[in-house]
Specification:
This protein has about 190 residues and is mostly helical. The protein has two domains: about 100 residues, GroEL-like equatorial domain (GROEL, domain 1); about 35 residues, no CATH class. Strands 1-2 form a two-stranded antiparallel ribbon.
């Protein structure tokens, strides 16, 4: 008794290995980063999107743009998941993290062409991360969460690139007051 084969993967899909797969992954990740690159910064450009109902949406929110695009490549999907994770954890910085990831992968391209093994490249990035953390700890300024001036600076840095920045210090003051109203301190002082 024989049964028809069950295909889990698309039979039309092509399989790549080695350098060809690495190059394709880097190219896909860079393509996703290029989509949102122009939406970053004070002179950011709006992107025009068609929503599922056929309406037109104008936005410079990288996360909103990445939510609307449909990609098939696994590396591109990973980049979009990276943006979602950033949005869930922090609520901001999705465009920055996608562009940074795209640039990190673009920098790797030259090393792969020189036949440096990926584990050597990853180890170098981990060493660079340790150095970045060390430098950040040296030059960083401690923040007093009880000080309204420090809290205002934090909120201003995040609101400055958003649409709400049109209301200036009013929205910042409201955000700081809202945080003070709902904040709680646990047993560890956090």
């Amino acid at each position: 008794m024989s049964q028809a084969p069950v295909y889990i993967l698309n039979p039309e899909a092509k399989r790549e290995q080695g350098k060809k797969a690495q190059a394709a992954n880097i190219k896909a990740a860079k393509a996703v980063a290029d989509i949102v690159r122009t939406t970053l910064g004070p002179k950011s450009m709006l992107k025009m999107l068609l929503d599922p109902m056929g309406g037109i949406v104008l936005t410079n929110d990288g996360n909103a743009i990445l939510r609307e695009i449909d990609v098939q490549h696994p590396a591109a999907k990973s980049m979009i998941e990276l943006a979602r994770a950033q949005d869930e954890e922090v609520g901001d910085g999705t465009t920055s993290v996608i562009i940074l990831a795209g640039e990190v992968l673009a920098a790797v391209e030259g090393f792969i062409e020189k036949e440096i093994h990926p584990t050597v490249i990853v180890n170098a990035y981990f060493r660079a991360l340790e150095e970045i953390v060390k430098i950040t700890n040296e030059i960083g300024t401690p923040i007093n969460l009880e000080d309204d001036v420090d809290m205002t600076k934090i909120v201003q840095s995040t609101i400055g690139t958003k649409f709400a920045s049109a209301w200036g210090s009013l929205i910042v003051d409201l955000a700081v007051k809202a945080v003070r109203t709902v904040s709680q301190t646990d047993d560890n002082g956090f």
